[in-house]
Specification:
By secondary structure, the chain is an all-alpha fold. Helix content is 32%, strand content 0%.
């Protein structure tokens, strides 16, 4: 279970991202990762990060 301090740290991190202008944030908690592991993925478009549209795996159906 997360402590109040850990929760406050996450809130501060998310607040700082939105203050920097980040408009879309996805947060995923993975039990198998180290406790201090944080990964950021940036995408310069409006597609969801990691979606088939963002990674280019969707084929052009018009061809």
């Amino acid at each position: 279970m997360a402590t109040e301090q850990e929760i406050e740290e996450v809130i501060r991190m998310l607040d700082s991202k939105t203050e920097e202008g980040v408009s879309r944030i996805g947060v995923h908690r993975v039990e198998t990762e180290r406790e201090d592991y944080v990964r950021e993925v940036h995408h310069h478009g409006r597609c969801d990060v990691g979606s088939p549209f963002a990674d280019g795996s969707v084929k052009n159906f018009c061809d």
